[in-house]
Amino acid sequence: MLHFPDPAKLRTRKIVFEDVFPSVDCGTLEQLKELSSKRRVIEEAVNATSVITEAVAREMSGGLTSRTEQDLQKLKNYLPLLENFVSHVEMHGSNNKMTRWVSNLRIQWSSMLAAAPPFSGLMGPKFFQVDNVRFELGLMLFLYAALLRDRAYDVVTSDLVQSTTLFREAAGVYHYLSHDVIPSFQSQTSGQKPPEASSSVTTAMSLMCLAEAQAVTVRRAEERQATASLLVKLHSGVGVFVSEAIDSLHSEGAEVKDFSGRFMEYLSSLKELHELKSKKYLAQDLKSSERIGIAVGVLRQALVDAGKKIPGDESWRLILRKEMDEVADVLRKYENENEIVWHQRISSWDEVPVPVGSKILKIVSYSPTRCGGPLVFKLG
């Protein structure tokens, strides 16, 4: 499978909640300290500044050996506390002191999906500051979904069912972000925001995760030797999901117009790969019904189309080239067989059928949880 790990490579700057928000009672102070503590381990993880050894990290996580699983656990410990904090801050959203405190929090995150290069010489990544606590919630949820994707890739070789579920869960988090978190603060904030904080991008990410989930599902169907006609629909369905993701990015209401070249190249390559696979199975289905002349036309067109969009990323290019070589081998076999046995006319490009895709997967809905007691700030 193609892999695009960039979304999980976010960076953030330190936040100490208790230094900014004056509390009335000890309970509030302790909760703010816990919030800072839970965030600190995430900061160290994403910024690669942790000095904890692998053995200690494994012990602290209850025996988890996967770095991705450890980071997911850190986010699961932080997000419910953050949800509680956000709800209490928003109770006093119009208070001038609260507005000032949120600004003093200096919530800053980098972006891996912005058009500008994420790193500039020795200066490090560019950080975006948005003075709204839902920006913190949104970027933490974005990171959580990105890590779910990474975990899905980790297990794809060992457990296709779990991998599919993880991709669908990631899609659900991005869907929640797009519909429930981002719209509530997008119109209230000014200044530049990263693509990760826009509804059009998180919608595209959700659709991309569903495409990836279907790519795993069709892989499982191939292992079970499903019919060629079914594999045509499933592979083509991956392309349908990707097309919808690209449409979201370029929709009239899209908040961001310039994206990372790698992001767009990944979407294009993912679509191209599965369209090529779909046409390979379409040709196989046509041959089985003795329409080998049309099958040859489908394969010829598929190879020409795939050759127009070779990705720059070496790993993606190798995967696409390997698939193109396999299709070329099938084409030569069909051409030889047609020349010796069938003698059918080869269909021209405007005569060949187009694969029809079926989307069979849906998101696993994300339901936020909240923990912690009341937070009382010195607003008087």
What is the mean pLDDT? 93
Class derived from helix and strand content: mainly alpha
Which range best describes the helical content: under 10%, 10-25%, 25-40%, 40-55%, 55-70% or over 70%? 55-70%
- Global Rg: 25 Å
N-to-C SSE string, H for helix and E for strand: HHHHHEEHHHHHHHH
Distance between the termini: 57 Å
Globular, elongated, flat, extended or rod-shaped: what is the shape?
A: elongated
Q: What is the number of beta strands?
A: 2
Q: In DSSP terms, counting alpha (H) and pi (I) runs of 4 or more, how many helices?
A: 13
Low-confidence segments: none
- Biggest sheet, strands in spatial order? 1-2
Largest sheet: 2 strands, antiparallel
Quote the beta fraction: under 5%
Structure report:
This protein is mainly α and 380 residues long. Helix content is 62%, strand content 2%. It has 13 helices and two strands. The protein has helices at 17-20, 26-46, 54-60, 67-91, 96-105, 133-154, 160-181, 183-186, 199-223, 228-249, 261-288, 292-307, 314-342, and strands spanning 108-110, 127-129. The longest helix has 29 residues, at 314-342.
List its salient traits.
380 residues, mainly alpha, two-stranded antiparallel sheet, elongated
Architecture blueprint of SSEs:
Blueprint: H1 17-20, H2 26-46, H3 54-60, H4 67-91, H5 96-105, E1 108-110, E2 127-129, H6 133-154, H7 160-181, H8 183-186, H9 199-223, H10 228-249, H11 261-288, H12 292-307, H13 314-342
Task: Give a quick rundown of the structure.
It is built from 13 helices and two strands. Strands 1-2 form a two-stranded antiparallel sheet.
